[in-house]
Amino acid sequence: MNLPPTVTPRAFARLAEINAGGPGPALRVAVLGGGCSGFQYDIRMDDPAADDLVLEEKGQRVVVDPVSLPFLTGATIDWADELIGARFTIENPNASSSCGCGTSFSM
Fold first, then answer.
1. C-alpha dist (Å) from residue 9 to 48, 70, 78, 82, 104
2. Of 14, 36, 86, 100, which is least surrounded by CB within 10 A?
3. What sign results for the dihedral spanned by CA atoms 78, 97, 40, 32?
4. Which residues form the Core domain (predicted)?
């Protein structure tokens, strides 16, 4: 069974801060070819498309397009605020390796 990606409460809370607590654009998480490991994540604010998977909590939305969805099966989308920077992160059980910056991976 393919599990959809999950979004942590911390990631939803950060998205609410970005959207000033109200409804706003969704956080789009996509997978593109490229990067230093073969695939790379594209994380940006965007409006949902009709065929997107929409993960929602308290009016905040994270969307994944159908092409990217198989690459993100069982993944966890989180928010990390560390000394090296603050960013949305993806823990992807499908990735066999990833680069040091965490934005590209291979399967």
1. 20, 23, 8, 17, 24
2. 100
3. negative
4. 6-102
Name the one residue in this structure whose structure tokens are 């099966």. Answer: 73
pLDDT of amino acid 57:
96
CB 39 within 8 A of CB 33: yes
50 within some domain? yes
pLDDT on residue 100: 54
- Report whether 74 contacts 90 (CB < 8 A): no
Residue 23, by phi and psi: left (phi above 0), alpha (psi -120 to 50) or beta? beta
CATH number at residue 46: 2.60.300.12
Q: How far apart are the C-alpha atoms of 1 and 3, rounded to whole Å? A: 6
Residues 40-95 have pLDDT tens digits of 899 999 999 999 999 999 999 999 999 999 999 999 999 999 888 899 999 999 88
